[in-house]
Amino acid sequence: MHMYDYKLLEAFTAVVENKGFERASLVLHLTQSAVSQRVRQLEEAVGQILLVRSNPPVPTDAGKNIISHFKKVELLEVELDNSLLHKEVSGFTTVSVSLNADSLCTWFLDAVEKAVKKNRILLKLYVDDQDETHRMMKDGEVSACISTRDKPFQSCSCSLIGTMSYKMFCSPEIYEKHFKNGFDINTLKEVPVIIYNEKDTLHKQMFTNAFKTQPSDFPYMHIPDVNKYKDAIANSFGIGMMTVMQCREFLDNGTLRDAFYPHTVQTPLYWHRWNITSLSLDALTNSILKKNMLI
């Protein structure tokens, strides 16, 4: 059987995306046995194991290449179908993008709004740390990503979007108690640092800027929600890194203070996308690169 029998590729991708054979069978409206058989047939066709049968199943490197190929073909086929139909009855095209939470909550949706509406794009967004989003691109799980990585992957392009500026913010109460007369590394023993999640390294970059070293020990907490993160800082749970764009209003009205003034962390962001001819990807790319972000 030819290795590019797309029913087999579809079944394999569904198992990975739905984290198991049972859920994949429901999505594909097939029996679990039929899905399992298609995955075995695909592995026999390519002559190697594509799926580690763990819980959930995990694709091998070869399996990730299969998924990447299938998603590219799927995107192109949807756009071809749409172009062959009358404009009024054309369907939507799904484009998967991984991006950081700060971009999503500040500029991203505004940047792509016109492109999404005009080109009938259905966004499938995956949120992760800006230093991690490119891993989904590498594994073929998304067709585009926003990342701090400045080098393109094979068969992909990479363009600078702009730079996001981050500062260490705190409430007026914490500022008056700990930072009014300046700060040093010992201050970190007295006030918790709020971190988005275990992948977040922005605070470490700020420590390097402010202290030229990393503190060996300091109290910290994880709050993996952008809005609740800001609320926690405003309510004096601790200090935390946020974008200047997100907090400019709160600085102006005195709700937040710049704890580590004048230190700033500048984070360049890059747009990665597949190098395929796709009206949807082209539209998103043009909108994002026109943002010319310096924030």
TrEMBL record:
Location of the HTH lysR-type domain: 4-60
Record keywords: DNA-binding, Transcription, Transcription regulation
PROSITE patterns: HTH_LYSR (PS50931)
Pfam families: HTH_1, LysR_substrate
Keyword Transcription listed: yes
Record InterPro entries: ArgP (IPR017685), LTTR (IPR050176), LysR_HTH_N (IPR000847), LysR_subst-bd (IPR005119), WH-like_DNA-bd_sf (IPR036388), WH_DNA-bd_sf (IPR036390)
Keyword match Manganese: no
GO molecular function terms listed in the Swiss-Prot or TrEMBL record: DNA binding; DNA-binding transcription factor activity
Gene3D superfamilies: 3.40.190.290, Winged helix-like DNA-binding domain superfamily/Winged helix DNA-binding domain (1.10.10.10)
PANTHER family linked: HTH-TYPE TRANSCRIPTIONAL REGULATOR ARGP (PTHR30579:SF2), TRANSCRIPTIONAL REGULATOR (PTHR30579)
Family listed: Belongs to the LysR transcriptional regulatory family.
Protein name per Swiss-Prot or TrEMBL: Transcriptional regulator, LysR family
Organism: Denitrovibrio acetiphilus (strain DSM 12809 / NBRC 114555 / N2460)
